[in-house]
Amino acid sequence: RQKSAKDRAKAPRVSTTDPEARVMKMGDGGFRPAYNVQLSTDGDSRVIVGASVSPVGSDARLMKPALDEIARRTGTLPDEFLVDGGFGSLAAIDQAAARDVTVYAPVPRPRNGKIDPFDRKRSDTDATAEWRERMRYEESKEIYKERAATAETTNADLRCRRGVNGFVVRGLSKVTSVVLWAALAHNLLRVPLDALMS
Q1: pTM score of the predicted model
Q2: Residue 48 to residues 71, 88, 196: CA-CA distances in angstroms?
Q3: 159 in Cβ contact with 186 (< 8 Å)
Q4: What pLDDT score does 139 carry?
């Protein structure tokens, strides 16, 4: 007997090719087993200072691990952290502020168009209220635009030139190895040749 749509929806699904991968929404609108690759890029040198792979599709809880990764690899935290909207959860902004990191992230637009998204909300802490107020100003929006020239170009480079776009290996540890090798190749090409010789 054929299962109903309701029964099929309840049945657990596991990838037969990679059990550690999770079904995620792709840029083309489809859903496929995938990993969530996170890269942190230095704004001045465009060197990758943090790289990690997660089987979680949402970025909402990944800001703290990204900052931990940067601190582990570089020995310091950035003064400013430009992140995409998925990272900008209120809890993550609070955690970053507690570490003296200023977050630049888009403020979500409320469904009610009459509400100013930059005004303090009842659920805001001082840190999240400061973030909203900071993002109100053109100066902050100009700073945030730098993300396109750093993070987005680095992501595009790894996808288009370094093979981080569909993995031929399986498993979180192997995918992480591929990402780290790609980040290393990217970084070596960003460093001036004379610096490598000294």
Answers
A1: 0.82
A2: 13, 20, 17
A3: no
A4: 95
pLDDT exceeds cutoff 60 at 118:
yes
Measured distance CA(34)–CA(54) in Å, rounded: 9
For residue 13, the model assigns a pLDDT of: 62
* d(C-alpha 28, C-alpha 114), whole Å: 32
Measured in whole angstroms, the distance separating CA 102 from the mean position of its chain's CA atoms is 16
For 128-155, letters b (16+ CB in 10 Å) and e give bbbbbebbeeeeeeebbeebeebbeebb
Tokens of 76: 């310091």
Taking CA atoms, 99 is separated from 44, 70, 82, in Å, by 21, 13, 15
Work out the average pLDDT over 112-120: 90
Q: Tokens for 17?
A: 């090719």
Digit-coded pLDDT (tens) for 30-62? 888 889 999 999 988 889 999 999 988 888 889
- Which DSSP category does 152 fall into? I
Distance CA 183, CA 54 (A): 16
Task: Tell me the one-letter amino acid at 51.
Answer: A
CA atoms in the 13 A half-sphere facing the CB of 109: 4
Compute the 3-state secondary structure of the chain and give helix, strand, coil in percent, each to the nearest 5: 45, 15, 40
